[in-house]
Amino acid sequence: MATRTEFKNPLIRWVDDRLPVFTYLDHEYNQFPMPKNLNYWWNFGALASVVLVLMIVTGIVLAMQYTAHVDLAFESVDRIRRDVNYGWLLQYIHMNGASMFFIVVFIHLFRGMYYGSYKAPRELLWMLGVVIVLLMMGTSFMGYVLPWGQMSFWGATVITNLFSAIPWVGDAIVTWLWGGFSVDNPTLNRFFALHYLLPFVLFAVVGLHVVAVHVTGSNNPTGIDVQAPRDTVSFHPYFTAKDSVGLVAFLMFFAAVVFFAPNLFGEPDNYIKANPLQTPAHIVPEWYFLPFYAILRAVPHKLLGVIAMFASIAVLFVLPWLDRSKVRSANYRPIHNGLFWIFLADCLFLGYIGANPAEGWFVWGGRIGTIWYFAHFLVLVPLVSMFERPRPLPASISEPVLKEKR
Amino acid sequence: MRTMRSLVIAAAAVLAGVTGVQAAGEKIELPDRNWSWQGPIGSFDRAELQRGLQVYTEICASCHSLRLVAYRNLEALGYGEEEIKAYALNYEIHDGPNDQGEMFTRPAIPSDRFVPPFPNEQAARASNNGAYPPDLSLMTKARKNGANHLFGLLMGYADEPPEGFELMDGMSYNRYFPGHQIAMPPPLYEGGVEYADGTEATVEQMAVDVTAFLAWTAEPELEERKSLGIWVLAYLAGLFVIMVAVKRRVWSDVKK
Ligand code: HEM
Predict the structure, then answer these.
(1) Is the dihedral of CA A373, A98, B68, A64 positive or negative?
(2) A44 lines ligand 1 (CB under 6 A)
(3) Are A158 and A141 in contact (CB under 8 A)?
(4) Is the pLDDT of residue B163 over 80?
(5) Which residues are CB-neighbours of B22 under 8 A, at least 6 positions away?
(6) A242 annotated active-site
(7) Is any Cβ of chain B less than 8 angstroms from the Cβ of A120?
(8) Average pLDDT of B184-207?
(9) In a 10 Å sphere around its CB, with 0-12 CB exposed, 13-18 middle and 19+ buried, how is residue A95 labelled?
(10) All structural domains of chain A with their residue ranges
(11) A219 lines ligand 1 (CB under 6 A)
(12) How much is the pTM?
């Protein structure tokens, strides 16, 4: 924040001289130089921020009407939908917002993978992103327990039970997590408290993530660095305008789901009140956990399965060092490019496996998918990055934009 | 970008597949009716809902509760205040204590929720051979393809199970119930109710009507949701056109 912006309005100037928030906003969201060749895949970070705010706002209003007690939680959520003015809208936005959040963030993450945005100097930015994913998972897992339906209860039971795989102290940890000897009222209460807390932690980490992206600047589809001012345009109005187009398109998708298919992503069983004496025929987690659930079940040993599941995310932390190639964008890396698409297909495949009972071909299908998942990061990406010959890179961002217009 | 586009389509297909995944084992083909409330501008048929309420009241209510719905909600079916009061009066509620410290019973009023047929689950099981008739308030949302499941269930009884099928005592054979043995005896029979509006009470008619009624109890907001949704989407579509124009204008001076 070397140079202050000169503001005309005396009040703004007065504040800015003492606390340069307006200078900050002007630098970071007005003048901020952005590569001019960004495509619409660069929209998704902004979309994720919007969804996060939407989730916090709807969540706080829901919490005003929600009752965290095993006898009342299910009914209180139903009453929000039935009796609170526009409560159904609020509840459906929050419920589907979680799915939207994951859709947007997964796209954002795969965008980063494809264009090599995790490479120097953006490693820390990337790692903060992985922390965000983990926090989102924790938050949504606990949020899903709150309506106290059958899947809430049994999902919570299955997932918390995973910790019992830890040698020696596992059972004690599970009892401690539950606050008792099964998922029960104390569990529901602490999950509510944490579900209220974590989004604000998330908000803070997103703040760091955004600060980090403003230090390095955005990557771009060519993956080569910005060299001259002619490679960039200012954030405002160019990207405020472009992000708005994406935002409205996204909101249309979101609204279509909320208003016309609000239960598209949900499990019917969660409209049945939790019953500890009756296990549902198939316990399935929310769709965004399915690939990880498949990895968990692919390993025929409980502890190793849990480790594999956590490792499947942890490996993302070290991706910047597994990929040794100097070239960022997969557009110029023919083999890596192919690997990327196979990996993406593998993730979708694992999601499909996770939605199905672990029997028949789903068992070995899940194993192959899991092996590929880890082989991708630990073997294929490092090897390819050492031996692949990238295609020639353009001299600057402006050059391919001039010559290679698609 | 071509690959990316085909990938997005593939992803959507997979997601659609995932949400439609059936449990392993026998796949039951449910009937597939065109319900009036389906589709983006679908709405309930008031006459159907009123007949459905009658079927629920006269048949299902002797076993199944509807504990999330209040009598006052019946206004949405087109009943007036007096009619609702009169309807609620038919039911007794345990209340209290009064200022003498005693519990008492009183007739229900519109703000009460539907009075359940049994005081608790144990009583319900005791009267139903040990089986529990589930609450019906959210039934069409609590099953995959709920309306067709419910309709199929009501239509799917067979007098005789197929050759070689072992039916347990007190159970009925049903084509659409998972496992085909259901503890609910066939609730509908020709002329089971005498419709107030004179409609002929065939089994199918009653099944359709009560399904519509229970679709309404599960999603009373459905009509408001869809009509608001149309406006929201129309508004966003307009905004989208404007934003695209703005974006083009803003970017027109950037050398590609
Ligand atoms: C709460 C969820 C998240 C929010 C609100 C968020 C927000 C943002 C924003 C506003 C940007 C700048 C605009 C853009 O490039 O799209 C950004 C960039 C970035 N994010 Fe995220 N993000 C989230 C999650 C993640 C996750 C899960 C990852 C990956 C593990 C990630 C990795 C990145 C990277 C690498 C960049 C720089 C991308 C580039 O410039 O190429 N983010 N994020």
Answers:
(1) positive
(2) yes
(3) no
(4) yes
(5) none
(6) yes
(7) no
(8) 96
(9) buried
(10) 16-220+234-277, 284-392
(11) yes
(12) 0.91
